[in-house]
Amino acid sequence: MSQFPKDFLWGAATAAYQVEGAHDADGKGLSVWDVFSHLPGTTHEGTNGDVAADHYHRFKEDVALMAELGMTSYRFSISWPRVLPNGTGEVNEAGVKFYSDLIDELLRHNIRPMITLYHWDLPQALQDKFGGWAGREIVDAFDEYARLCYQRFGDRVDLWSTFNETIVFIGMGYFTGQHPPKLKDPKLGIQACHHVFLSNARAVKSFREMGIKGQIGFVNVLQPNDPISQEPEDLRAWEIAEGIYTHWLYDPVLKGEYPHDMLEMAQAAFGVPEFHPGDAELLKENIVDFIGLNYYKREMVARNDDVQGFDLNTSGQKGSGGGMGFKGLFKIVKNPNGVYTDWDWEIYPEGLTDAIGRIRHRYGEVPIYITENGLGAKDPIVDGAVLDQPRIDYLSEHIRAVGRAIELGADVRGYYPWSFIDLLSWLNGYQKQYGFVYIDRENNLARKKKLSFEWYQKVIRSNGDEL
Ligand code: BGP
């Protein structure tokens, strides 16, 4: 008997910049990623999302494949500059129509849409105008954008999330300089992150004021960190890593306030976040309905006297990255007993059960969706067939881990592997594949079902019994 509830959602996920392509079609404005990815040296071999999977033009074919797969929900994001080319003001009706048609097509196939409002592709116009997330004006701009989406799509869509993985677009955008706007300015980053929390709260408030029928949540990376030893310095480093990766990102949206210890540390070190009158109340009064969890790996953490920066493996050659950490706080080290992907991500399914437990322990019984989970790999092709058995092994172990969390009482309502189809990996190009559907980039982006496609079909049909 399956542990998964009868109405459990079996989905898959994508994000606009990574899948749509059509980066300048039909009146779309530029996003910060359209600009950043064209700067020399920013991404793996200069890859970008100009064409991506061309989902913009082929969404009907893709939705038909989703239906064949048996998906009951699809998580995708809206490209803000596609609907508001300047970030605010004039609406691009052609962009609105694309999403409207996509939603209708999904509903025609009984696939429930889950919309992410922000998956990193900020309108470049707002970056230029007031520094994007660093400017307080972003809170009004995001609210205008969110209201437009609720107004146009809220009659047909009842699952929404405001943000995807703030730790990544703020951390890599403002602390390590690997995403736009390419800054290494922690003070500005902490303030920009505050504006994200305010924007979330305002958009949640608007959602409720407008009476949209449905639920609105926030999507975070779920990354259990474990200390490499029980030495006091490693334990302290681990506490700080947990404070940053988890408490800082989850508390403001689930408790409506910052973790006090971390807030004191940030204010002592940098004098931010700066609160305006009303900020604390806005956060407190608008906590989200659910939390979306993106789980890929855990990290082992140690004291750090030497490493500054995050030298990522973006090639898929094991061991090609370098040190990762913030000097004086913590660093990420390899687990000597761990199993790793070619991108040096630890494969650790039990971490998913544990980390859900940690969330319940800190925040109580909040509804949970697993909004991303998957294996990035260069899939083997044998006689034209894409034999991605390692992905099947990875996903089946992780679905078991979700099942165990449910047995332990967690309110997990859906599972969305990353990704439905092969798409652009932000810094790793098209060689890091995640999809159930392969795209032949040599043959007019033809779609081809992988071995995992058939396997996931069975999983869905059996409601998680056949893994
Ligand atoms: C998450 C993002 C996704 C996706 C995924 C895989 O952080 O929300 O957009 O890219 O990670 O990461 P990567 O493409 O770096 O392997």
UniProtKB/TrEMBL annotation:
Its EC number is 3.2.1.21. It is an enzyme of class 3 (hydrolase). InterPro entries: GH, GH_1_N_CS, Glyco_hydro_1, Glyco_hydro_1_AS, Glyco_hydro_1_beta-glucosidase. Substrate binds at Q18, H119, N164, Y296, W418. Keywords: Carbohydrate metabolism, Cellulose degradation, Glycosidase, Hydrolase, Polysaccharide degradation. GO terms for biological process: cellulose catabolic process. PROSITE patterns: GLYCOSYL_HYDROL_F1_1, GLYCOSYL_HYDROL_F1_2. One of its GO terms (molecular function) is beta-glucosidase activity. One of its GO terms (cellular component) is cytosol. It catalyses: Hydrolysis of terminal, non-reducing beta-D-glucosyl residues with release of beta-D-glucose. It comes from the Bacteria. The active site is at E165, E372. PANTHER family: GLYCOSYL HYDROLASE, LP05116P. Belongs to the glycosyl hydrolase 1 family. This is Beta-glucosidase. The lineage of its organism: Bacteria, Pseudomonadati, Pseudomonadota, Gammaproteobacteria, Enterobacterales.
